[in-house]
Specification:
heterodimer, A: about 280 residues, mainly alpha, MetI-like fold, 13 helices, globular, B: about 350 residues, alpha+beta, Rossmann fold, OB fold (Dihydrolipoamide Acetyltransferase, E2P), 2 domains, 5-stranded antiparallel β-sheet, 19 strands, elongated, disordered C terminus
Amino acid sequence: MKHATRVLPGFGLTLGYTVFYLSLIVLIPVGALILKAVSFPFETLWQAATSPRAIASYQVTFVTALCAAIANAVFGTLVAWCLVRYSFPGRSIVDAMVDLPFALPTAVSGIALTAVYSKSGWIGQWLHPLGIEVAFTPLGITVALLFIGLPFVVRSVQPAFEELDPAVEDAAAILGASRWQTVLRVLFPQVMPAILTGFTMSFARGLGEYGSVVFIAGNMPFRTEIASLLIVTKLEQFDYAGATAIGCVLLAASFALLLAINLIQNRWLRRWGGAV
Amino acid sequence: MSIEVRHVRKSFQNFTALDDVSVSIGGGELVALLGPSGSGKTTLLRVIAGLEIPDPHPDSAVLVNGDDILAGDLRQRRVGFVFQHYALFRHMTVYDNIAFGLTVRPRAERPPKEEIRERVTRLLQLIQLEGLANRFPSQLSGGQRQRVALARALAIEPKVLLLDEPFGALDAKVRQDLRRWLRRLHDELHVTTILVTHDQEEALEVADRIVLMNHSRIVQVGTPEDVFHRPASQFVMDFLGHVNLFHGRMDGDQFVVDAAPGAPEACVYARPFQLDIHRTEAARTTTRAKVERILAAGPVVKVELTSEAGDPILAEMTHERLRELKLAVNEEVYVALKEMQIFEEDYSI
């Protein structure tokens, strides 16, 4: 077999490195989890994974992560639109602020959010009389996930808005589209794949988030206990089978979701091809 | 529908894109706005389209069929606009792209679904892409995309059709085909059309009339024959194709190249096809020159020469003439002017 000469050097090296690195960082830990799981009898695992407390924790985790990801997709897109389309004083400061949730230790943000949203906090004191409790409720978990998930949406949608061809908007206007029609039928669908990327990342992050949530959640079993916290609780009780079982469920569910969203996205992008 | 632009000025920050431009275009005409890049032609087109608002001025007006459209709403203008880089909606099929201008109309004005279907089908036939209604723009070639863009512009039955360098991003062969196709289309539809281009060949071939622009102003308006044979200025002459420049003086009506000191200087322009090459000194001989290259691959033979003064000269002749002369590289020959264009002023570049 003759080797085709490639223009870019280092195909073997980079692929080898990629496989090695991914194995070390992702595959081996995930493999260890699965290996650990199969060392337990299936019955034990099944019971641990389907215990009412575990199922309640999945529900809390997925519902809060989903709500936060949806809200982030909407408002993150809005923030990205503002940052790209309008120039206003302090734009670069706002732009930098978007990244703060990436940088802040999650414990710090969790404690800060709890302080602000508790009954006597700055915001909580106004919400409490209205009957809205944030801290120590699922709503509080969602607020924490909103905080940590926002930059994912903004940072993936921003470049998509930036690369939109202004001539396409001119074309829509000249063809008689109102401004709302232009936004809804022309602009929005074009950035949809980027919004979905942001949504997915925000959602995935929400599923696994631990640090910021534990402070604001209150961690009441069946009500505000998230799956990752339940894993830690199980570990502290030396219930390795239970922790592994719940870990595997989270892993499988997350992987299935991410795969599905990726497939949808690939289909879009294939259809649209490159820039037109 | 006729278009009339009166005293339009447009400046961006500290750059003047249009400096008191007036032009009128008759109904059903195909006019080319021709000029180098930065001459203001695209800005003028965008002003007519309503995409740019001219600087406010009491004399300024843009009239389509007598109505001042600067006052009206962009969406009511019914202008068809084709962009250089197509500006198609990449997330819509060819069908939806073409139908867009109809489907965004308010419910009361929107044609029924069957009528939209009919009209899109007719346009697809017109652009010869009947089978590709369900493709996405990324699945089409550049020429096909531009035809879709044209169909999309025509779908709203525009009063005027504005094309902004529509073939600029296409390769030479496709460009030629589309150019002829556009001309035939125009002869069928008779929509008043303005075509912006920097390609003089395109303008000369397609347009009924050419509006030449330079430095934010219109420098000449006329039929292709007018502007080609009777250029109003050295710029126009130079822009519309290769020219040879000869310095010398006038001796009666005879141009003499060797400028005698003190005699009034003259400057003549001659296109390559206006030159003759002789073996011996003839009546209208202008200068001696040395043959540098002979390019015989093409419909006409191009001969590159260097004059005694060292200036390059390009001459064109038929293949028969070349055989007759038996020219060879490095030979000394005489160049004569069959026709020429004399500009007494404005000859400094």
